[in-house]
Amino acid sequence: MPALKTGLALGNRRVAAIPPSAIRAVDNQISKIPGIIKLTLGEPDFPVSEHIKAATKAAIDADYSHYAPSFGYLPLREKIAAYLAKRFDAHYDPATEVVVTVGATEAIHAAIAGLFNPGDTIIIPTPTFPLYEAVAHLAALNVVLVNTAPDFLFTAAKLQATLAAHPEAKGLVLNYPSNPTGVTYAPAELQALAQVVKASNLVVLSDEIYAELTYDTKHLSMGALVPEQTLLISGFSKSHAMTGYRVGYFAGPAALVALVGKMHQFMVTCGASPMMMAAQEALATNFDDASEMKAIYQQRRDLMLKALTAAGFTAPRPAGAFYIFAKLPAGQVDDVAFVYDLAAKAKVGVVPGSVFGPGGEGYVRLSYAAATADLIEAGERIQRYVATKE
Hints:
Blueprint: H1 13-17, H2 22-30, E1 37-38, H3 50-61, H4 74-88, E2 98-101, H5 103-115, E3 121-126, H6 131-138, E4 142-147, H7 156-165, E5 171-175, H8 187-198, E6 203-207, H9 222-225, E7 230-235, E8 248-251, H10 254-268, H11 273-282, H12 289-310, E9 323-327, H13 335-346, E10 348-349, E11 351-352, E12 363-367, H14 372-389
Parallel strand pairs: 1-10, 3-4, 3-5, 5-6, 6-7
Antiparallel strand pairs: 2-8, 7-8, 9-12, 11-12
Helix pairs in contact: 3-11, 4-11, 5-6, 5-10, 7-8, 12-14
C-alpha cells in the first residue's frame, strides 16, 4: 500500500471545502444495520422494460463499441426533440439544440461550468437536491439560497424579492417536480414565475428529470414558457428506471447549447454508445413506459402519507416525483438525530431534511420508490417508534 509522500501540496481548495454527499453518507452508515428498510435513495425499484434491454443487447452485438458523436447520435437527438415537442410543447432543433449527456448529473455540471464565470451569482431555491449548490461552489459562483418553506414553491413574488436583493444574478436553478419535496407547480404559478424570468436576464437551468412522474396535473415545462432563457435538463433515469444506464440530455437555444456542449465534450467526450441506443429505443414507443410505474407510485404515496399522518408527521401532498418531505412529529426537532435513532431502533432508513438546505430543518425525506410490502412494514415500524417517544 503506497503512502503519500510527505510534503506534497495537493488538493483543490474548493473540492476540499465541499463535504461528500450527505445522502450517500447517511445511506452508507445505516446500510450496516441488519434488516433495515431503506427509503433513502431516489432509485426506482422497477426493472428496465424488456424492449429496452433487448435494444441494449442488440447494440452490443452490432458493435456499438466505438465513440459516438460528441452531441450524441442524431437519431436519438431527433427522438428527444420529438418527445419534448409532443409531450411538453417544447421545440428544439435536434442538430443544434439537443445534447446527450452521461446522466442529468453531467448535464448539470456542464451547464454550470459552461455558462457562468467565477464570481457570478446563481439563485437556488431550497430545500433542494444538494448537487446544485456543490457544483456551483466548485465553479466559484456566488450562491444565493432562497428558503421556500413552508409551501416549498419558488413563487413569482419570491423571485422578484430575490432579484431586488441580488440584481446581479445571472442564473436560476429550478427542479420540479421537486427532489426532496415532491412539490410541483400549477400552470398559473409557473406562468407567473416565467413572466418574472422574461423581465430579467436570468438563464434558467430547469431540471425536469421527474416530469413524467406528475400525479395531479400535466407537467408544464419552462422550455415551453421561456425557451429563449431556459436550458432544459432531463434524462431517462426516473421515467424509465434506467439509473445505471446514465443517459441524460439538455436542450435550449443553440448559443447556450454550443457553450454547454463544448464543456460536455471536454468532460466526457461523448456518452456510451450502447446506452444511447437503449435510450433511442425507450423513445421509440408511445412514451408510455412511465405510466404503469406512475400509477403504482401514486398508490404508494397515498399509503405512506396515511401511515405518516397516523404517526404524527405532516407533509405537503406530493404532486410529483417519488418523495415525501415530512415534518417531524411534535417534540422532535433534530432531524439528524431522529434519522439515526429511527434507523437504530426501528430499522427504517430515511434522510434528514437539513441536508437539502435552508427550510429542510426538522423534516425528513422518504423515498416511496420501494416495494409496497416494504413500505407497509416501514410505516408500521415508524408508527411504533414514534409511539415509544410520546
